[in-house]
Amino acid sequence: MPDDLHSKTRRGFGTQVTHVSRPGVRNHGFVNGAVHRGSTVLYPSCEARGSINAAGFEKHALTYGTSGGPTHFALEDAIAEVEGGTRCLIVGTGLAACAVPLLAYLKAGDHCLIPDSAYGPTRRLADGLMAGWGIETTYYDPGIDAEGLKALMRPNTKVLYTESPGSHTFEMQDIPALAAVAHAGGAKVLMDNTWGIHHFQPFQHGVDVSIQALTKYVGGHSDVLLGSVTVNSEEDWRIIAGAGRFMGHYASPDDCWLALRGLRTMAVRLKHQEAAGLEVARWFEGRPEVLRVLHPALPSHPQHALWKRDFTGACSLFGVVFQPRYSAAQLDAMVDGLKLFGIGASWGGYESLALPTTGYITRTATSTELLGGPAVRFHIGLEDTADLIADLDSALATLPR
Ligand SMILES: Cc1ncc(COP(=O)(O)O)c(C=O)c1O
């Protein structure tokens, strides 16, 4: 067996996540790598110190704990391969992975474009710290086309931020068309690709920097917080790694190890959860209490054609908009009655979740009334789908007719 199974040859996804970044014979023959914890890295000599430090941006350069160690490198290589990029920086949370590239590419006087449907804390960063530092943000309709985006681009627009589908509202974006406009105007294209993990290859669609909350499907067990920033060029790597390190971003090697363990089973989990999510989403579509289901893989989704063109599959997170006759309080009571769904944020774990979206949707470029009724976000886990549907059936029966 080769010592290093990291390979760019096109293999199936299950094979890829089973073999990527395994230590091979280097780890006394053990299947899994070790957890390397540490701050100080010893230099072999004073003379060697200079050349080792100078290699700080090189792959797997061991200089000091904050530049990562073998456990980080194993996860970085694995995520870079899953995302189809060349280099990856692991940071402590998914939110940090959103923040690092925004702060890396933007400075005072710059302009940034963020979709109205972006993950809420990304918006908070733009409206708070970034605004305070003199970085201006324009929120745009996630459904914007190339012409619309051209009209929003300015000479100082340095970043087009994207997230497809959008958080809570699940609008799909035409990433290749928007990326072409951004690049023509000299802006970098950043994408929060957490929903699209594995199913969307960002660098084949014009993205420069791909963000993942590894907390979700990669961790897969709701017991770890981690984020990744993946790039596809040496130039971008130096900007991202430089900014991440200037700000002291770091992740625990124990958490990286947990993420690597999660990655080994991610292909089967994603496959199961995609099918289970679609089954539950279709069931919701047939219910009289439901106005519409926000799932990009359903033909009823307004941008289903974009999903079909650019994605190879779906994860198990979607929204359900209920009839406008229901109040938020009635929906809360229905969710409270669920036995198998936890009420909580995050997603991508093994367990099912339900989260009323009241209070989670902020809009400035589009209408806050866009959904047409109160909504609940569902994450479908690894329980038997029939049990989940029976649980939902009982809960929906408590809603007034
Ligand atoms: C789309 C998206 N991006 C980023 C994050 C941030 O991830 P984390 O919880 O690891 O900070 C989340 C978390 O819910 C998310 O939903």
Automatic annotation (TrEMBL):
Pathway: Amino-acid biosynthesis; L-methionine biosynthesis via de novo pathway; L-homocysteine from L-cystathionine: step 1/1. Its cofactor is pyridoxal 5'-phosphate. It comes from the Bacteria. GO terms for biological process: L-cysteine catabolic process to pyruvate; transsulfuration. Gene3D superfamilies: Aspartate Aminotransferase, domain 1, Type I PLP-dependent aspartate aminotransferase-like (Major domain). It catalyses: L,L-cystathionine + H2O = L-homocysteine + pyruvate + NH4(+); an S-substituted L-cysteine + H2O = a thiol + pyruvate + NH4(+). The modification N6-(pyridoxal phosphate)lysine is found at residue 216. PROSITE patterns: CYS_MET_METAB_PP. InterPro entries: Cys/Met-Metab_PyrdxlP-dep_enz, Cys_b_lyase_bac, Cys_met_metab_PP, PyrdxlP-dep_Trfase, PyrdxlP-dep_Trfase_major, PyrdxlP-dep_Trfase_small. GO terms for molecular function: cysteine-S-conjugate beta-lyase activity; pyridoxal phosphate binding. Keywords: Lyase, Pyridoxal phosphate. Pfam families: Cys_Met_Meta_PP. Its EC number is 4.4.1.8. Belongs to the trans-sulfuration enzymes family. This is Cystathionine beta-lyase. It comes from Teichococcus wenyumeiae.
